[in-house]
Structures are given as C-alpha cells and as structure tokens.
Amino acid sequence: MPEPPVIRVHSLAQALGALRAAARAGRPVVLASAEGAGSYLGPGNFSSLCQAARTEVPQAQSSALLDCGEDAGAALAAIRGEVSGVVFTGREDVAARLADIARLHGVAFLRQRPSAALDLEGDFFATAEEAEQLCAVVLAASGRSC
Questions:
Q1: Average pLDDT, rounded, for the chain
Q2: What's 122's DSSP letter?
Q3: In terms of Cα–Cα distance, which of 67, 62, 7, 12 is closest to 34?
Q4: What is the DSSP letter of 103?
Q5: Domain assignment of residue 75, yes or no
Q6: Per residue in 57-113, pLDDT tens?
Q7: With b meaning 16 or more CB within 10 Å and e meaning fewer, what string describes 97-119?
Q8: Mean pLDDT, residues 16-33
Q9: Which CATH number does the domain housing residue 50 bear?
C-alpha cells in the first residue's frame, strides 16, 4: 500500500480543506507543518490546529508531522505532546536520543523532511473550499500514479 500523501498546511483553513478532500477521496493524508515550525508555532499550536480540523472532519484519516528542524527542545516537546510524527534534522547524537524517546511515546521520528505532494504556502489566505479543491487535484493525481 502506498504511503499517504504529505500535504504541508499553514493554517486551519488549509488543514480543513486537506481533510475534506481526503475524506471525499477515501484516502489518508499526512498534515505536515512548514519547515522548522516546531520552533515558532510550537507543538501545542500545531496539535490544536490538527485536532480542530479532525474534529470538523472526523471521517478523514490523517496523521500529523511537525517539522522541528534542528530544534531539539521543540522536538522533545512534540514527542512528549504525542504529535503523530516529528522531523528532526539536528545532530546525530541528539537525534539518537530523541528517536529512543519517540519510540517510547509511539511517535514517528524522521531524520529527513518528506517530499510534499502539495505545499499550500503560496495559498496561505485560501479558504477551506479553495484548499480542498487544490488538495483534491493532488489526491486524484497521486492515487492514479501509485
């Protein structure tokens, strides 16, 4: 089974659009944060954004991936906050310790940023409906190619 497409979201409207498109397509998606968002947005805010979208679209299957860049503190906070997944690109020795902690918490731990099927950064002010249309196109295209 192919990996769920990664959709990089920057707002609640975008997350809602992504989940609505995923539910309509009957496909799971990964809601990923912007690069390094763990440092400036924080795990709590990102988790709240994803949870609000999931509450609004409960039929969608999704996981969340918070990019913490090289910020070990943000990565540890995300792991303890049990975000679905964390990206950490910092030092290898720190990553090894964080990976162990992530395993204990059941949190996916990635050393590299996954490629996004769609990054909605350029559509920051898109409505949920506009984001849903953009995501639907990507989900339809990625579903055929897999």
A1: 94
A2: G
A3: 67
A4: H
A5: yes
A6: 999 999 999 999 999 999 999 999 989 999 999 999 999 999 999 999 999 999 999
A7: ebbeebeeeebbbbeebbebbbb
A8: 97
A9: 3.20.20.70
The 8-class DSSP code of residue 50 comes to: H
Number of domains in the chain: 1
CB burial of 18-47 (b: ≥16 within 10 Å; e: otherwise) equals bbbbbbbbebebbbbbbbbbbeebbbeebb
- Please indicate, yes or no, if residue 1 is contained in any of the structural domains: no
| Amino acid at site 138 | V
Q: Which residues span the domain enclosing 22?
A: 6-145
Cα 58 to chain center, whole Å? 16
- Please say whether the beta carbons of 16 and 50 come within 8 A: no
Residue 144 pLDDT grade (very low, low, confident, very high; cuts 50, 70, 90): low
| pTM score of the predicted model | 0.93
